[in-house]
Design goal:
Four Helix Bundle (Hemerythrin (Met), subunit A), 0% strand, flat, mainly alpha
Length: 291
């Protein structure tokens, strides 16, 4: 059997056509969703009847074996080319973890079998596009994290000097040293109980102007820097959408060129039509890039 190409548009064998068919992929997607529901229900195994739990466990094992067969089929079709895509590596590792025996020594690995649900991230095209855009934005996120860490460090040094010199044990726990101050400022940044659990204790300790310091930190760290994460992800998604649209338009342009070339038209007519089509496609690309 000739090796597969990982291209859904072409196939070199009947087995490859089966693996790449819409029916097979939709069946795998349905099994992933069903398996996710089963794993969720099994977390209530102590409250459910034993026969029902046993049935769910059998279904879980059956679905795991089906996933293993799926991986074997793809390995048979694509061979070593299967590992040229990162998502295939993810599927292979997740399914392999699911096949680990349920012994005490491997209990942690067995708990990771719920990762099979994450296969939906690349099985569903929309989720795959969003996930890939998120992964592409990771380098930019590193820079934002560095800025955030620097702001937190500066704020922690200031907070330790301003509020740490006290006899109040609660305030000492919050700002007695640099790590404690950094952790407290992280809580303030997430705005989780920041007013009564952090700021109010500092104010009650004799620092009436402390809220100004924390409000400035919140505006800079939470409202400004953290929102850069959202802007970065949105920009990555927009770039992914533009790239997908441009690729689709290029495919349309190639198809039209082939059709015009094969048509029984005079050379001047073909050139005129191609120019008109290319102009329309250029306008569409420009409009898309502006949006």
């Amino acid at each position: 059997m000739k090796q597969g190409t990982l291209d859904l548009e072409t196939s070199n064998s009947a087995l490859e056509r089966f693996v790449e068919s819409h029916g097979f992929r939709h069946a795998i997607t349905g099994l992933i969703i069903l398996n996710a529901i089963i794993l969720g229900v099994l977390t209530y195994s102590q409250q459910l009847p034993s026969p029902f739990v046993s049935t769910l466990q059998v279904l879980d094992i059956t679905i795991t074996l089906i996933f293993a067969v799926e991986i074997l089929l793809k390995l048979t079709v694509y061979r070593f080319r299967f590992f040229s895509e990162g998502w295939n590596w993810f599927d292979f590792i997740v399914v392999t973890i699911s096949l680990v025996p349920a012994t005490q020594a491997f209990s942690v690995l067995r708990a990771l079998r719920v990762l099979r649900v994450l296969r939906l991230l690349h099985v569903v095209p929309t989720l795959k596009r969003i996930t890939e855009a998120l992964l592409k934005s990771l380098p930019g996120m590193g820079a934002i994290l560095a800025v955030l860490a620097l702001l937190t460090y500066v704020g922690a040094v200031m907070a330790t000097n301003m509020f740490g010199d006290t006899d109040n044990p609660e305030v000492i726990q919050l700002f007695g040293d640099l790590p404690s101050s950094a952790y407290s400022l992280f809580q303030v940044m997430t705005m989780d109980g920041w007013r009564f659990e952090v700021v109010q204790k500092v104010v009650d300790d004799g620092n009436p102007y402390a809220p100004f310091f924390f409000l400035i930190f919140i505006f800079i760290a939470s409202f400004a820097v953290l929102n850069l994460f959202i802007a970065l992800i949105v920009d990555a998604l927009a770039a992914s959408e533009r790239a997908a649209t441009d690729e689709h338009l290029d495919e349309i342009e190639e198809e039209l060129e082939e059709e015009f070339t094969a048509a029984d038209l005079e050379r001047d007519e073909i050139i005129t039509l191609l120019k008109e089509v290319k102009a329309e496609l250029a306008d569409l690309k420009a409009a898309r890039s502006k949006s």
